[in-house]
Amino acid sequence: MKILVGVKRVVDYNVRIQVKADGSGVATDGVKMSMNPFDEIAVEEALRIKEAGKAEEVVAVTIGPKVCQEQLRTALAMGADRAIHVETDDQTQPLTGARILKAVADKEEPKIVLLGKQAIDDDNNQTAQMLAGLSHWPQATFASEVVIDGDTAQVTREIDSGLETLSVDLPAVISVDLRLNEPRYVKLPNIMKAKRKPIEVLTLAELNVEVAPSVTVLKTSTPAKREAGIKVESVDELVTILKEKGLI
Amino acid sequence: MSKVLVIAEHDGSQLNGSTARAVACASQLGLDAIDIAVLAADGSAVAEQAAKLAGVATVVLVQNPVNENAVAALLAPQIEALASDYSHVLAPSTTFGKDLMPRVAAHLGVPQISDIMRVESATVFDRPVYAGNAVITVEAPEGLILGTVRTASYPAVAQDGAATIETREVSVTLPTHTRYEGLKTSGSGDRPDLQAAAKVVSGGRGVGSEENFSVIYGLADKLGAGVGASRAAVDAGFIPNDHQVGQTGKIIAPELYMAFGISGAIQHLAGIKDAGTIVAVNKDADAPIFEVADYGLVGDLFEVIEELEKAL
Which of A117, A187, B140, B207 has the fewest CB atoms below 10 angstroms from its CB? Predict the structure, then answer.
């Protein structure tokens, strides 16, 4: 069994982003970039399934400019066997991304595609569901536990009302949530080893993928900021204020 | 005639409060009509609740035993069949809507706009990115527009409407590859729903343990408040996941939010910035939560809660 796992390069989660003054986007020059944290969890889960003897190969895939190969190297250093880089300099929106991943999945024929539930830059939370929709495959989103049992997977999902369990036939798309696992640290010798692992580079044309209808971003702005209020000295003072405001 | 269809979220008997908020967003589009789709096994009770939402013209009731539980792979083809009568289809941006709508969009070959927080026109919308640290204004391409509504950005519409309920047969082939196995709820009992509560008392890592969370529940019960938590508290196993507030948990807009032992990571702040009044109690005077709190109190949360309970 093969697992395909998606990896996206995003602004590191610790960075306090800055909106460009001309409203054209978020400043990314000289900003630390990393693998989307949800994708790290997806890679880790793929590796754990392989290490449990339930998969033979883990293939990492990314979409974006050449520099995204840094994140593929991270996935390889974590333990992925090989990687696919779909190279494009254009911003890829979720529906196009899903089309690309479908083309890669058609070629690779994985039993499971693991993706992060959302990327922490555009916060769309769409690509996994769209890939599943395009492929007419089952989807199990926001996974906090994945149990592979032959040709099916039991997936526990974190939803607003609690923990839901779905049973899905494979092949399936699974999007992962924060509590699924804790990704491993990459060890130095593995970083060296990862440099020798293969990365296949493909284009949209080679995959026969057309860019999907897209939304146009008209502008990027800074949201209205909440101002810091006051510090109160005592519980009595707090209670007096909250009572005055009719809140308690 | 352009119409919007809002997909109702419900549990089979009760309409979820997020639906009335999505209708509020739909009413900003300035279209000819707002309809609601209720997909259920037996949806008559939910349809009647939906028919009361102000501004709704028709409740489209689709009854099918497979709709007993909300499974995106089964709901999506049915919504796709309904969508052809509409210019817009919206759902709340809850785990229900987020799971469902992108799949519908993929089937229909159109993009989906996530977390609509402001309607500028019927085709232009604002939505948050980077955990709410930036807002983008996007224009949808020609054709059907699909979106999810950031419910914290919209107050629920009133319940004085009287829409027509129309039962519709949808005959589409549904897949058998996905089976609902069960739901484990945290059983918060009579406490108000976190996403609808006017007051929320929330605890973080500083609470220290699952046992200690009883003081958070105690104060919440005294105030008639819902109970929230930071990711750190959920990760540590102090409290179940459905209480998590933040970028990847629930985005809430209560009148009063009280944070105890929560440092205030940007991911958490993304979930509370629409709260009316934020009160923060933390022993670390430099905790980032104080940068957004209206009223901050530096001190031991257990002592503060004890005093609060006495003063209430």
Answer: A187
